[in-house]
Write a structure and sequence with these properties.
heterodimer; A: 177 residues; mainly alpha; 8 helices; 71% helix; B: alpha+beta; 8-stranded antiparallel β-sheet; 9 helices
Chain lengths: 177, 329
Amino acid sequence: MLENELTLIKRSQVDPNAFAEVYEHYFPRVYKYIRFRIRDPETADELTSQTFEHVLTKIATFNPGRGSFAVWLFTISRNTVFDHLRHKKRYSSAPIETLKDCHSAEPLPEELVLRKETHEELLSALATLKDRQREIVALKFGAGLTNRSIAKLSGLRESNVGVILYRAIRQLRAQLS
Amino acid sequence: MKEKEISKRFSYDIDNLLRDDFPDNMEVYNATPKAYQESYDLARRLIELDLSDENSIRRSLKNKLLDRITSGEQALGCERGRIAHPVRCFFLRRHPGFAVAFVLMISVFVVINVWPGSLTTAAQIIENFVRSLFVGENTSIHQVSPIHSTREKKKVPEKVSLEKMDNLWIINTPVGGFAATGQPGEKVIVHRYRTFKEAIEDVNFNIRKPEYLPPGYILSEVIVTSAGQAFLVYDGSPGHIILQQCRVGEQPAVEEGYEYTGEVQYIGIAVLTDESIVSVKLNDESAGWIDNYGLIWERDGISYFVGGTGLSLEDAKRIAESIQIDHED
């Protein structure tokens, strides 16, 4: 959680600096969550953009009495992802598998290539999980939420979140080995 | 160690990792089984996975959003350049009361012109509400004159049965029929399970069960609907006991397969009955007892009903009070 988060959120509607702090803090988590859910990086960019535009439009309606800002923010992120997946399910039958070499127009330094391969390996393994497992893993390791917050978002019990998470990691491990 | 205990420990360790708190005590880590260590290491890789090189929009999006704040366009969709901007901003942003009054005035005008006499009819309907009990934020019981009761007086079935009607299911029970209906156009799915364990393992719904039941009663079936309802059916003498639970208030909308659709829906329960209703207390909570029907209450965002053939108020209260808040399966 950000220091002075509530004050920053309150000021975010009118103060660009306050919003910038909130944005910088949460952007990596939102992007990572979405990237764990969506394989195509360009689509992930687009959905991240939609999420933050929505956040800015609705930030005045955030009520701290009803839950933390992170839960509120990731509710919007999830809605954006689910809307996309539903739309994709209805209108597109071809899976988007454009991840490989999508940014390889220029030669990459060796270290960057290795890192990209590691990313690719993990993200490919994530894509083999069941949708619910993938969602929980994304909320945990992408969004960095507690099991309690994940339970609140998903409607599952906290103990079930833990079990699903542990099973998903075991499955990922098997996949990667 | 059982899977549940391992997963609890795993979650605890992961939360420490997320707080950047890798255990200093490597002895503790080394003492865990190899498979656990591998899972932990994988979790650590996922946490440390840095995707910041990948996205190309971080800076441009930030600039775009900050520009919007600077130009005051962000709130309530009052984007500059849209025709409705001055009107919408005046009503919604500065004077929302005017907007509400305006909408009400137009609605009344439309209703009395399209349906003359409708206001009188509405007044008569309201008059027919004899008494109302609010047993929770989202659950209410209304005693109405017999013509407005939603309960059918037809002969009730001896066994529980399901009946499909267009987009909804009717769950016929010895205490009456329950409708399982979703949002407009949503296809409701009903699952039946023989045991409580099967039900909770298979559905995304926090079903609760009572610790107390009158002697001789056993669980015969669990029915769960994708509309967020669960029915626990108990067999015994003199007949069935039905415990219904339904999530109420603001809920994530779900669709086939219990997947969250990304929308929010509001669910409230309003029971209309022509039987007499009595306000009762369950510990510190309010509940409503409907003669010849059952007990209704709300707790922690769940609306409950328990009823059964010949079930007394005393037994219904004991069942209600014995329902645990959160079950460990």
